[in-house]
Amino acid sequence: MIKRALMISVAAAALVASAGAAGAQDVLKLGLVQSMTGALNTTGKAVVNGALLYLKQHGDVVAGRKIQVIIKDDATTPDAAKRLTQELIVNDKVAILGAGMTPSALGMAPLVTEAKIPTVVMLAGASIVVERSPYMVRTSWTLGQSSESIADWAVKNGARRVVTLVSDWAPGLEAEAVFKERAIKGGAHIVESMRVPLMNPDFAPFLQRARDRNPDTLFVWFPGAEAAIFAKQFVERGMDKSGIRIVGPGDLTDEDELPGMTDAVLGIVTAYHYSAVHDSPTNKSFVADFEKAHGKRPNPVALSGYDGMHLIFEALKKTGGKADGDALIAAMKGLKWDSPRGPIEIDPRTRDVVHNEYIRRVERVNGQLSNVEFETYPMVKDPTKEARK
Asked: Fewer Cβ neighbours under 10 Å: the N or C end of the chain?
């Protein structure tokens, strides 16, 4: 009897150990490499806020896998992003990664390719990013999508003499190139193209040069808080009364920055894939939950993190919880869903996001400066990749 009891005890212990091992295997680690500090810290925080809101709404278990999120701060430094990615892969054994700004995502690409780690690009807007690794899929946007759309709208609405003014780094140069090509094709004349050093605090000399060229339209792209600084200096120089129309991608009037802007930005027209006042039940629910959690409206960056988590969840459902790189990327290709931004899908050929581009005008809605949509360009693909088909 003692021998039998001992055998039962050993068997029970083995069963418990086996169950514990199985439980441990069910944990799936997701590493988010984002800019939580540094010059672009607001963008990284927005991505993380959106991703965590999705988990709060839908729970942290999908297809039998418990999602454990590990957040790493690259401090807006590409070299740090590369080092942190290596640590997440080697030390933390992450199964999936979430990439942030363009330079960081580019630095991560060779590492995730070698390790075959599926990586969701939740912020970078440069077209080339997902081409650097077959294990990258994008839920953010490309600057080309919005730049092409605003070029079409501007030319259709009388843009003939245009000055372009963008930040001198990859996303800005891409926005400039796509806009110019499309605007020229439509009949506009680009009278000058100016590039401003990244995180530049003084736009005065550039604004004066732009004014001297006597354009009817000024195409502008700057990241994050730079847009608010630009708008303030535009007004200080009286250019809001000069008859020059400002257009650009939606970064120019980001929801995070609008509360700090003045009525001088009223009437600015941009093209983007999302506005916090987008009129749909899905978006109204998303905005309400985000405001309750964070005390402010979501911006397009927060939505990218939110949609990135949705993509991961739906792909894991398709694979039955398997996070093998090739299987998960295959499951992500072609996925479609109803996002707060409207219809969205992952192009199976390019692994890039396809979504509506909305032409928006800054107006006051319930006392708040808001991007009010008034025209839609449906299901726009990345024009840079489409041109090479």
From this structure: N
